[in-house]
Structure formats: structure tokens, C-alpha cells
Amino acid sequence: MLNKIKELLNQEVVPALGCTEPVAVALAAASAKKIVEGEIEKINIIVSSNIFKNAYSVGIPGSKNVGLHIAAALGAVGGDPKNKLQVLKTINKEHEDMAKKLLDEQRVMVDVDDSKCNFYIRLEVITSNGLGVCEIKHKHSNIVYLEANGKIVYENNEVAVANSNNNDFLKEYTLTELINTIIEADANDLEFMLDGADINIKIAQEGLNNSYGMEIGRRYKEMIDKGVLSNDIQNNILMMTAAASDARMAGCFMPVMSSAGSGNHGITAIIPVVVCASGLNKSQDDLIKALAISHITTAYIKQFTGRLSSVCGCGVAAGVGAACGICYLLGGGEKEFEYTIKNMVGDITGIVCDGAKPGCAIKLSTAAASAYKAALLAINGSYVPCGNGIVGCDIEQTIKNLGVFSREGMKNADRTIINIMLKKEVC
Q: Is residue 365 part of a domain?
């Protein structure tokens, strides 16, 4: 089982430059442009509502603009598809000017289509050489179709659908079994977890040192420095988590280590655990295992809630992951892990995802603080009992209930949110 866990973590915990939804669109644009080349005349974007929502208001690395239009244009004019979720790392000022010109001339068009699947991108780049097409499904870098001037260059829909859930093996085990496997493992086998800690702490420091977005992290720091808030583990978790999100959501040209396809998930799953481990003077081995527990819990929950959903994944998935990582650092066992998950699900499940944006820093800080609170309460024997709302009688039933709520209970939320974002009348 450990080898499968390591394989999954290597697939799901990867660096990403910028918010992963617009970056996935940029990847599609770069891929479509590469197979046809020529001077760009027009770009057509078709995405599922979840992609649209999460890319509408977020900053794009390499640009002062926000949203899908500029992400696609930047990907087409200067992105390198070989870099996958860091496709925009090659962008420079000349590329930004070229992309902005495409937008100014209204050559980039966006449409929403949920008929394919709930994670879908189709990017058409029309150039002086013809038409290039790229489709992505199910995962951010999962290209399933490439077409150049009517000729199929690559098509792999069947394999793509099967491989989109390489972590299906998670459902063969209970979360407790997965966590125990990590606890019993040699920390050296999971040492690569530390890469994410280094990357995400660096962007958090950047968010503290410079002005990004709503400056939530910097405001926490000011309040701690003034003595309005105490300089303790929980407030440092709030500060560092928010600061990283401030920088990322504003388009900071620094990567983050993602988790389960999301950079904000990565921030939430990693930073609270790192800050807590530092505050508790835990060993590097303990930190490694706590991070692995956080990521595996996040991936496990996403199997039930879906890759993208109407509820805030940082709250219901990565936040729960961080809480379990913290629970381990606090010395918790199987009973305490169960209590921790019940506390998180009973606390912040209802937070909606209304798109990626600067305000995400507040939600991430809420999820991070709740993670610490949930673990502390669990360690001290306090937990939401069975049958309280959607909280089940054990870990598995609680997570299944969370999945049903996320998939079935919030079916119409995305369309309502998008209509509000676009200021359309909601019927």
C-alpha cells in the first residue's frame, strides 16, 4: 500500500504557477498553438462552469489582468506546454503586451458548457496556419484531444477517463488504514513531502513582505506585532496561510505546491501543518509524516466530493487534511483522527466556493484556524457526536455524507454563483 500512496502523492502534490483553473486553460492554449503555429487571429474558449467560476476573478502570473481571457492569450503567445501546470513560467513582458493586444482587439472569446463533464476545457486557436484544438478533461493537465486543421494529432479519451482517477485505489481502503500506513512507514520514503513545505512557506513570506491582494496575512502580522492578537500557533497559522493565498491569488510569479489539483488546497494542506510542527518543536520525521497524512486525507475526501465542487475544497478537504496532520503532531491516535474529522465536518462544511479570487485568503485562514481548533478539541476528547447534521458515526460514513452533500445538495449552486458574478438575473 505504501508504494501506491507514494505514487499518488507524487502525482497529486506537484508545483503549480498561478491558480490551477486558468493555468489549465493556458496549458490548453499553449498546446493548441504549438501544433498549428502561425500568427494568432482568434482564440475560442469553452469551459465547464466550475472552471469558469474559479478563473473569473483571479490574478494571472505574468500579467496585471485577471481571468480566463488573459490566461488563454498568455498561454497561446508564450506558454510552454512541456511545463504543464507551470506553463506560464516562460512568460515575459513582450508576451504580456501581445496577449493584452489580443484582448483589446476582442479576439478572445469565452463560453460555458456543462454538457461534457464537470471538468472540461476546449481551446481553439485560429492562426494564419489554420486551427489548433486542445481538450482537457477531469484533471488540470489531463489533455485528452489534440487536433490540427481537422487532423487528429492525439486522442486518448478512454485511457484519460480511466487514468483520471489513478487514486481510485483509495476507495479500497479506509482512511484509517491509509493514515496508519503512513505512520508506520520510514520517513525517508516520504521525504519529498518537504519540497512542498519549502515552496509554500516561501510564497507565504512573499505575501507578508509585499503588498498583494487584500493583504490579509500582513494585517494579521500587524495585529500580532501590536499585541492585539497573541503570537501563538493558531494566529501564526492564520497569518502564514492567508499571506500565501494573498500572493497567489494576486498573480505572484512564484510557484506553490498544489494538492489534489489545487494550489490553494496545497497552501491549506501544508502551511498549517508546517507552522504547527515548528511551534511544537517537532522533528523533521514527524513533519514529513504529518504532511503526508494531510495530503492523503485531502485526496481521499476529494474522491467523494469531486475534483471541483460548489463547496470550498479548502474547507471540506484540504482543511480536514491539515487537521489530521495537526492531530498527528499533537499525538493523536485513531480515535482522535475520527474526532478531528467529525469536528471539521460539523464546523465549516457549508462554506461555498464562489470562485478563485483575492478573498480566498479569508476562507483559507478560516479553514486553517478551524483545522487547528478541531485537532485540539479532538485531542482533549471533545467532538461532534454521531447523527449531528451530516456527521456520521465513524470516519467513512462522515466523509460519505460530506460527499453526498457536496455533489447532490449543491447541484444548482455553481450556476447561481456565476449568474451573480455576471450580474445576471437569477431565476
A: yes
Q: Is 9 within the bounds of a domain?
A: no
CA distance 18 to 258: 10
374 or 416, which is more confident: 374
Q: What's the rounded mean pLDDT across residues 308-334?
A: 96
Secondary structure of residue 281 in the 3-state scheme:
coil
* 27 CB neighbour count, 10 Å cutoff: 31
Q: Do residues 349 and 404 make contact, with C-beta atoms less than 8 angstroms apart?
A: no
Tens digit of each residue's pLDDT (9 = 90 or more) over 242-284: 999 999 999 999 999 999 999 999 999 999 999 999 999 999 9
Question: For 226, how many CA atoms within 13 A lie in the half-sphere containing its CB?
Answer: 7
Q: Which of 163, 181, 200 is the last residue of a domain?
A: 163
Contacts of 283 (CB under 8 A, 6+ apart): none
**Distance of alpha carbon 133 from its chain centroid, rounded?**
26
Note whether 190 and 313 are same-domain residues: yes
- Separation CA 287–CA 328 (nearest Å): 9
Is 1 contained in some domain? no
